[in-house]
Amino acid sequence: MIDIDDYLHAATRDNTRRSYRAAVRHFEVEWGGFLPATADSLLRYLAHHAGKLAHNTLKQRISALGQWHVDQGFPDPTKAPVVRKMLRGIQELHPTQEKRAKPLQLAALEQTVTYLDQQRELARQQSRFTDLLRHTRDKALLLIGFWRGFRSDELARLDIARIEAVAGEGMRIHLPRTKTDRNLKGSTYKTPALSRLCPVAAYLDWLAVSGLSSGPVIRGIDRWGRISEEAIHAVSIIPLLRRILSSAGIDDTHLYSSHSLRRGFASWASANGWEMRALMEYVGWKNIHSAARYVESQDPYHRAMLERLLPEQPATLGTADEADLP
Question: Residue 87 sits in a domain of what CATH number?
Fold first, then answer.
């Protein structure tokens, strides 16, 4: 029977709990602060780390410290106007440019999948079952992540019980919650079967090779070929993705993250004529500002548009007629 603590625990996501614990540890252990805190101590904490930590990191840590005070029944010093003013001042004096993951282009995806298929065939021939498992899982991760534009947390929460896949037709993926789904209504995503680079075939192949019939889809695999019972952690997907791409000969893998899959698909779809509304509906964006952050323009400097709007070059002035000379 589920008790009260289980329900309260379920109300907060694991990622949120981890970030809160990390913020409290950073304030108390690394900086030497005391809890419960005062507005003055928070100002000194912010001043010490201003320019060293990203502004969003500081905001997240202040938010976590505020939640700690609420949970423990103390007045929340992070709501003090002077703390909010301090954050605005830090942003003004230490502006930062948003870092965006490099989009995974379709050509790079195809190169990587070709490599994985070659390695899978070689592993079969040499009876290396562990390698066969890894390459098959990696292919499924890449193709589902790209064609659905999933982030690492969404890939980590894929569950066999919530996926319906029909070979040659398509698949339905239900996620009980997403990052923007504050009301926990859940979302269902449809993905068609494709003639090549097919996410449906890759998923069904992974189930066939692994023998999995329930539980998480993307799991860890140890050196002996034992598949974990638990889903791979979301933070582990980024280094995994970089290793996969690096093995396939893709350059600058340190620039890629799980957002590269979403940015890659969004840029490909936009370049091939998808209207923004259709793209937003397919990926699950709620507003156009979120969508625009992921679309990589084929003409980042808008050169074609500006050249088209430039007036025609005026005719070159010729030499004056001798009759017009004084």
Answer: 1.10.150.130
Which run of H or of E encompasses 219? strand 219-221
What is the secondary structure of 103-137 as a DSSP string?
P--HHHHHHHHHHHHHHHHHHHHTT-HHHHHHHHH
Q: Fill in the DSSP letter of residue 27.
A: I
Amino acid at 64: A
Per this entry, what is the length of the chain? 326
In a domain, 114, yes or no: yes
Q: What is the pLDDT of residue 210?
A: 95
Q: What is the pLDDT of residues 209-240, one digit of tens each?
A: 999 999 999 999 999 999 999 999 888 999 99
Whose tokens are 């193709």? That residue is 143
Is 44 in the same domain as 154?
A: no
- CA-to-CA distance for 46 and 90, rounded, in angstroms? 8
Q: What is the CATH number of the domain that holds 259?
A: 1.10.443.10
Domain edge (last residue) among 93, 127, 155: 93
The answer to whether position 193 is within a domain reads yes
Q: Other CB atoms closer than 10 Å to residue 238's CB: what's the count?
A: 16
Confidence of residue 300 (pLDDT cuts 50, 70, 90): low
Residue 248 has pLDDT above 90, yes or no: yes
CA–CA dist 95, 191 (Å, integer): 40
What number of other Cβ atoms are within 10 A of residue 160's Cβ?
15
Residue 311 lies in a domain: no
Tell me the whole-structure pTM to 2 decimals. Answer: 0.69
* pLDDT value at 181 more than 70: no
Number of neighbours of residue 97 by Cβ within 10 angstroms: 5
Tell whether the model's pLDDT for residue 117 goes beyond 60.
yes
Domain that holds residue 11: 4-93
pLDDT in tens, 261-272: 888 888 888 888
